[in-house]
Amino acid sequence: MFEVGVRAEFSATHRLRGDFGAATQPHGHAYRVEAVVRGPALGPDGTLLDVEALRRLLDDTLAPLAGRDLDTVPGLCGLNTTAEVVARHLFDVLRAGLLRLGDPVTGRLASLCVTVWESPEVWAGYDATLHDPAG
């Protein structure tokens, strides 16, 4: 299986609901996000996916979150904005963007994995097939 990926960063605030101690108070993170696509075959140009296209999609996905309170962002509002929930949200947005690229590109892609780091030591991710996001 081939894979290509990109990383980007954004800063945002949030607060957790539940038994999370100090994290239930508003606080911020310098998030790092990695998006990786996988597929079994390369295109005629020798690539799985143009990494610049993936970079643009990731940048476009993160732009609405940068500098924001994640608890107020459409798609996250009303959810407990854990790293897991943020990773799934980013997966959904990136998946939609990848599918808009259309065939033959998306025909080569089998899966997408999104990993979100809240700090250098704490991360969560969501990984599923591209054409069936339920995994």
What key attributes describe this structure?
single chain; 135 residues; alpha+beta; four-stranded antiparallel beta sheet; 4 strands; 32% strand
Kindly describe this structure.
The protein has 135 residues and is an alpha+beta fold. The protein is 26% helix and 32% strand. It is built from three helices and four strands; from the N terminus they run E-E-H-H-H-E-E. The chain has helices spanning 51-62, 83-101, 105-108, and strands at 2-14, 27-39, 111-119, 122-129. Strands 1-2-3-4 form a four-stranded antiparallel β-sheet, with helices on one face. Helix 1 (51-62) packs across helix 2 (83-101). The chain is elongated and about 50 Å long. The chain starts with a strand and ends in a 6-residue tail after the last strand.
- How much is the average pLDDT? 93
Radius of gyration: 15 Å
Q: How many strand segments?
A: 4
**How many DSSP H or I helices?**
3
* Helix and strand composition category: alpha+beta
Spans of at least 5 consecutive residues whose pLDDT stays below 50 are none
Q: How does the major sheet shape up? A: 4 strands, antiparallel
How do the strands line up in the largest sheet?
1-2-3-4
Distance between the ends: 17 Å
Shape: elongated
Give the H and E element order.
Answer: EEHHHEE
Give the % helix: 25-40%
Work out the strand percent. Answer: 25-35%
